[in-house]
Amino acid sequence: MKKLSKYESYHFEIQHVLVLFIVVVVFQSALSFINSQSTHKIFNQAMDYYRRDSAERVADLTTTALELLIEQGRMDISGQESHKDAAVLSLNKLLSQQTLQRNIDEVYLLVLKGDSVLALQDGEAIYDLYFGSYTGSTVSEKATAKNAVAYYNDNKSSLLDEEQIVSSLEGNNTFHVLVPYYDSGEIAGATYMRITPDVAGFLSLIASAYNQSGILFTGLILIGFMAMFFIYSYTAQERDVVQRQLFDQSSKQLREQVEHQKESLFTKRIYHTHHKAEKVMGFIKEDLRSLSDANLDETRDRVTKYANFVSRVIYDMKSYDPPLHVIRNPIFKTDINGVIQFLVKNIFQRVYSVSKSAAVTVKLDLAEDIPVLHINEYVIWEIIEPLIQNAIEHNVDQDLIIELKTEYDPESKRLQIEIGDDGKGFLEELLVSDELGVKALFKESISTKESGQNSGYGCYLAREISRRCGWQLEAYNKAEGGACFVIQATIG
User: Fold this and answer.
1) Could you tell me if 334 and 479 lie in one domain?
2) Which residue would you say has higher pLDDT here, 134 or 115?
3) Phi-psi region for residue 178, left (φ > 0), alpha (ψ -120 to 50) or beta?
4) Tell me, what DSSP letter sits at residue 372?
């Protein structure tokens, strides 16, 4: 089952089928070439044997026919002119019938006469030799006759000693054949034939049959691959449908998961902002209880800011990702120093329960002549407040000095806000950056506090809001001890 599941993980695409088809065609072509060469070699060897055998058989039959005709002539000698004509006619027919064949080039009856060899090619000469008075020359003047006599002389000893047919191949197709010729039971010479067997038609027929077989086999392979292609196309369509359905299902599940994560993050954000609103509402109630004619204007301004911040908190609860124009807009003219001073005086210095055994001192070092910021002041409040709160909550067991410092460079129009303390500092693992350059301190749910599941959200939210403002928020440990947050912004 493991092997089966392993093979099921492979999917054949159209390019795989094409490659397989090309490989099979190449191998089939190579196999056809090798088979053709080997078959041609076997055919040639078989044809050589067949041509030699057929040439020897024709020569042997011709010699036997000559012998029979001569013997029959001796038995029927009557001295009549008609007998001579009939005998000569029979001999000429026998010899001419051989030369009329397409495969036989020359036929000679080579007869020993003393030390000479007679090359006879017509019936009248043969008749005169055996039944009359032969007056011809011993060797014909024809070049072919001379060649026949020369071939006979070259093979005379083998022919007389073994009394077997002698044949040899000239070139690729022409055979020279000598068949022992017997007269009255004794070898009297030989029948010479030059034969060129023509087997081209037979070879063409075999090659044609083989080519037809190859074409048929290639056609069957092609049909098989076409069938594979159609089957694959059908299965690929079915697979694509299933994959599309699976993709749609996965997309649906992923969207649900993302929505669930958004809801979870939104819930944390609501908890975080609700905690701030609850604290500010406590300040509003306290101010209303202590309201008098002497502090009416001051209390009204403070409560108005408290109420605006609560409105901002409620707005944050309504939207996870608020539009940019409610954060940055030319209509906002915020004094950054004023925001810091208000937070220190009216938020942190009013919290008396930060630590029962330790004191928190806030020092301000604010630069003058800082231009107004086109940022919603309550958004800035949401950035700075959790950073100050982080410094306090991580040093509750000791006296703590928090220093807030602003610097502005008119040339580069760069504003820098530092929030530092003389406390324990950040843990080193919280200052390690990931592949995107984000330190662990600013990641969601990263905290050293043991205050429940909603901790570790203040620094994360401060960095996210800073990014929407176009600011940069960093953190490091100071050389003299303590932690420091740095906000950098470009004004203009």
Assistant:
1) yes
2) 115
3) beta
4) P
Question: Has this prediction a pTM greater than 0.70?
Answer: no
Residue 262 lies in a domain: no
Single-letter amino acid code for the residue at 5? S
Q: Answer yes or no: is pLDDT of 450 > 80.
A: no
The range of the structural domain enclosing residue 92 comes to 12-198
pLDDT number for residue 416: 94
3-state secondary structure of 22: helix
Strand partners, 415: 408, 489
pLDDT tens for residues 263-318?
A: 776 676 666 666 777 888 888 888 888 888 888 888 898 889 888 888 887 777 66
Domain end (from 198, 222, 257): 198
Whose CA is closest to 419, among 360, 482, 375?
482
Spatial distance between the Cα atoms of 189 and 364, rounded to a whole number of angstroms: 143
Q: Which pLDDT does position 373 carry in this prediction? A: 93
Select from 150, 169, 198 the last residue of a domain: 198
- Within a domain: residue 223? no
Q: Is residue 6 part of a domain?
A: no
Question: What CATH number did the domain enclosing 417 receive?
Answer: 3.30.565.10
Say how far apart CA 225 and CA 23 lie, in whole Å: 12
Cα–Cα separations (whole angstroms), residue 334 to 61, 301, 472, 492: 130, 16, 18, 13
Nearest to 457 by CA among 269, 295, 183, 255: 269
User: pLDDT tens digits for 327-378?
Assistant: 888 999 999 999 999 988 888 887 744 444 468 889 999 998 899 999 999 8
What are the C-alpha distances in Å from 173 to residues 37, 97, 281, 478? 20, 21, 121, 106
Can you read off the two tokens belonging to residue 111?
């007869």
Task: Work out the mean pLDDT of the chain and round it to a whole number.
Answer: 76
Give the Cα separation of 184 and 176 in Å (integer). Answer: 26
Q: How far apart are CA 371 and CA 428, in angstroms?
A: 36
H or E element in which residue 258 lies: helix 200-289
**Residue 262 is encoded by which pair of tokens?**
């958004």
In a domain, 299, yes or no: no
Q: CA 271, CA 9: separation in Å to the nearest integer?
A: 47
Which of 8-12, 30-34, 89-93 shows the lowest per-residue confidence on average (mean pLDDT)? 8-12
Cα distance from N-terminal residue to C-terminal residue, the chain = 69
What is the total count of domains within the chain? 2
Q: Residue 125: how many CB atoms within 10 A of its CB?
A: 21
Whether 118 contacts 138, CB under 8 Å: yes
| DSSP strand pairing (174-183 vs 360-365) | unpaired
